[in-house]
Input
Amino acid sequence: MNMKMKKVVALTMTAVMGLTLAACGGGNSSSQDAGTGNEGQDTPEASTSEPADNTADAGASSDVANKDKPLVWFNRQPSNSSTGELDMAALSFNDHTYYVGFDANQGAEVQGTMIKDYIEKNIDTIDRNGDGVIGYVLAIGDIGHNDSIARTRGVRKALGTGVDKDGDINSEPVGTNVDGSTSAVQDGTIEVNGKTYTVRELASQEMKNSAGATWDAATAGNAIGTWSSSFGDQIDIVASNNDGMGMSMFNAWSKDNTVPTFGYDANSDAVAAIAEGYGGTISQHADVQAYLTLRVLRNALDGVDVDTGIGTADDAGNVLSDDVYMYNEDERSYYALNVAVTADNYQDFTDSTKIYEPVSAQLDESAHPAKKVWLNIYNASDNFLSSTYQPLLQNYDDLLNLDIEYIGGDGQTESNITNRLGNPGQYDAFAINMVKTDNAASYTSLLSQ
Ligand code: BGC
Output
């Protein structure tokens, strides 16, 4: 399924373009520090980078119309937040438009299986109150986000708690279901050594704060407080759609109560917590995703085949193997593959911001001249995007000679971000992480003007 197209005229073209563009392009390839780490959600301005220093009034290094410039959507795939249907108009906005994310279904299955394996291995001790029911609670990130939906389904599928809705597993939050009577889930069963155990989703909730930010870690920390105070002895497992929420619940309650907690993203803090009882997480190969996000832009800017430095080695030797990503041409989407990170292998994942070695070679600036990119993160406080993804992007932007302006949103409104795309003519390419997956047109309309 990977494209194995060869770059043909590409090399010659690159050389010619390199000479032309190096002559007129700004030489600045230093990336800006966006500082999107721990700022509060109320001060999005604080997370915006300064305009690129010596290039503030210099335009993009070409006269390409904004609507024809390379565009990559990442981490939030343009799609209908109710049906999940892909927004193909946004995904094929122009010939240089792609999506980069990870394989949500494969990852969801890996997460569900990881939790099930843990239960099976620890069957003698898992049922803390000995009531014969293995109870879990689930933190849901965003009920309208395909990745979140897939993860909820993956857990329910593996544990047998899912019920069918319109031909797929129902992914709705149940609120509380301590007595097992809710119809959105069912009691599942797990068989170990010939014995059958009941598994129950005791509670689940979308972790959205009052201002509207989803995947909200603080909300998850509060939820586990509420849940544990009313039925804490029944909670044997904590599951979460991501590590941000998972770690918040771990720190608030499950660590002290030695309740295994499972997340997703393999952020460095979560991986480190495995040594302290965090049950496990999933690496969605953010190192590969961050590379692909910038690489598809680089290739379009260089006028070479999109597979360059991806399935086909580039002139510096960068290349990815089939076991870490796949490309779906119909969806114009690159998907990184997922790996479970547990007590068995977490030592290999301790630094989530480390670039992926097979694609770590610096591009030569004469053949791949500096270009200006506008890139936004939907929520400067999102744990995964700020602590893992953006640092990775910042490592790769230098290697790929991209001069990136990083914009951090508030996670609540698209306009908070689009307001800062006032002058798209200043940039050569765009990388977009929407607040809501339905909202691609808020960006493309600005580029079409
Ligand atoms: C990540 C989450 C993150 C979300 C935001 C997901 O891919 O796994 O941790 O919060 O994206 O869009």
In short: The longest strand covers residues 195-206. Residues 75-76, 141, 147, 215, 242, 244, 264-265, 382, 384 surround beta-D-glucopyranose (CB under 6 Å).
